[in-house]
Amino acid sequence: MSPKPSVLFVCVHNAGRSQMAAAFLTTLSQDAIEVRSAGSQAAEKVNPAAVEAMAEVGIDMSAEIPKVLTTEAVKDSDVVITMGCGDECPFFPGKRYEDWVLEDPAGKGVDSVRPIRDEIKTRVEALIASLIPAVPAQA
Asked: Is 22 within 8 Å of 82 (Cβ atoms)?
């Protein structure tokens, strides 16, 4: 059996977008993909509106803690998805890089975070299909 593909989601604070993406990927891939998330300037806690928005779709992120981006995390990942961290993300040849342009949920209420959450879910479903075509996406 081949090793699981691994994905790293990176945003500035690792408090909203990357945490939601990691939570969706963990849930929807049914543990078929190794998932990491980090921030170039990690916040102290996950955005409460992001936690609330994810709880509405049955995913609990309340125990998540923002993590600082490390070179090792990038090296250890097959796919690196950035969400606004710009030039602060290390680059290694042979990795698949994607930049997801998403609105930053920082400082926004749950009503503003829901459309960001839904866009992230759509992108995560496409990512799963590209990494493991045999895994059906679930709601």
From this structure: no
Q: What is the pLDDT of residue 93?
A: 86
pTM of the full structure: 0.91
Give the Cα-Cα-Cα angle 20, 100, 92 (nearest 5 degrees).
105
CA distance 4 to 115: 30
Q: Is 57 exposed, middle or buried (0-12, 13-18, 19+ CB in 10 A)?
A: middle
Query: Which pLDDT band holds residue 1 (cuts at 50, 70, 90)?
Result: very low
CA distances (Å), 48 to each of 52, 61, 80, in order?
6, 9, 25
Q: What is the pLDDT of residue 74?
A: 92
Active-site positions read: 11, 85, 89
Q: Is the pLDDT of residue 46 over 90?
A: yes
Whole-Å CA distances, 62 to 20, 69, 74, 92, 133 = 11, 20, 25, 32, 30
Start-end of H helices in 5-139: 17-28, 48-55, 71-75, 110-131
Residue 8 DSSP class? E
What tokens appear for 33 in the block? 């993909």
